[in-house]
Design brief:
This protein has 145 residues and is mainly alpha-helical. Helix content is 52%, strand content 9%. It has five helices and two strands, in the order H-H-H-H-E-E-H. The protein has helices spanning 13-18, 23-47, 51-67, 74-85, 112-127, and strands at 89-95, 102-107. Strands 1-2 form a two-stranded antiparallel sheet. Helix 2 (23-47) runs antiparallel to helix 3 and helix 4 packs antiparallel against helix 5.
Length: 145
């Protein structure tokens, strides 16, 4: 209960930043607190179909995962940077566990194949191989069948 709460979910960013924490712990806690806020804002952005804001939040999440949680690797950084530069991409981020994982990008459907080709080229130029990749679309969430 260093921050006066039972869970980081209940901590404010100010409390995290002003607490007497080791720098690594402070960064990890900052990621958790700011990610909760991004998730809430992201849900609201999706409800109003604001894909630009949702994409920006994806980019912020990636920066936080890289800088505060320290779970990215050069291959992921190359893909995310290429995606963020690609035409039609609203945002991109690491997903799936870190220290590798995958990248998910929010891309305009009409430009997805071109963006994917551009991202793959950037990766191949740096690492000498083409990353496995695919285009998919959002579907309904978990449900009883």
């Amino acid at each position: 209960r260093v921050l006066g709460v039972h869970s980081l979910r209940d901590a404010s960013l100010d409390a995290v930043l002003s607490a007497n924490l080791d720098e690594t712990v402070r960064k990890r806690a900052r990621h958790v607190v700011t990610e909760i806020a991004r998730a809430i804002e992201g849900a609201a952005a999706l409800e109003r179909s604001d894909v630009s804001r949702f994409g920006a939040l994806m980019n912020e999440t990636h920066a936080s995962l890289r800088d505060d949680f320290a779970v990215s690797v050069p291959e992921i950084e190359t893909i995310v940077a290429a995606a963020q530069r690609a035409d039609g991409v609203y945002g991109a981020r690491l997903t799936g566990g870190g220290f590798g994982g995958s990248v998910v990008a929010l891309v305009d459907r009409s430009r997805a194949e071109r963006a994917l080709a551009s991202i793959s080229r950037s990766f191949e130029l740096r690492f000498g191989r083409v990353p496995p990749s695919f285009v998919t679309s959002a579907r309904g969430g978990a449900r009883l069948i």
